[in-house]
C-alpha cells in the first residue's frame, strides 16, 4: 500500500512539475507574443510616420507648384492689364468722360 501511495505522490509531483513547466512555457510564449506585438506596433508606427511625411512633402510641393503657377498667371494678367491700360488710356478716359456727361 505504501508503494502505491509513494507512486501516487511521485505521479502528483511529476504532474505538478509538468503543470509548472507548462505555466512557465505559457508565460514565456506570452512574453514572446508581447514582444512581437510591440515590434509590429513600432514598425507600423514608423511606416505610418514615413508615409505621412511623404504625403506632407508631396502636398507641400504640389501647393508650392500651384502657388508658383498662380503667381505667374497673376503676373501675366497684371502685365496684360497694364499694357492694355497704357495702350487704351486715352480711349478709356474719353469713354468715361462721355458716360459721365450723358448721365
Question: Can you give keywords for this protein?
Answer:
103 residues, mainly alpha, 1 helix, 98% helix
Q: What do you see in this structure?
A:
- The radius of gyration is 42 Å and the shape is rod-shaped.
- It has one helix at 2-102.
- It is an all-alpha fold and 103 residues long.
Number of H/I helices: 1
Helix content: over 70%
Tally the beta strands.
0
Structural class: mainly alpha
The low-confidence parts are: none
Mean pLDDT: 93
Biggest sheet, open or closed, and with what strands and sense?
none
N- to C-terminal distance = 132 Å
Question: What order do the helices and strands follow?
Answer: H
Question: How are the elements arranged and paired?
Answer:
Layout lengths: L1 H101 L1
What's this, in brief?
By secondary structure, the protein is mostly helical. It has one helix at residues 2-102.
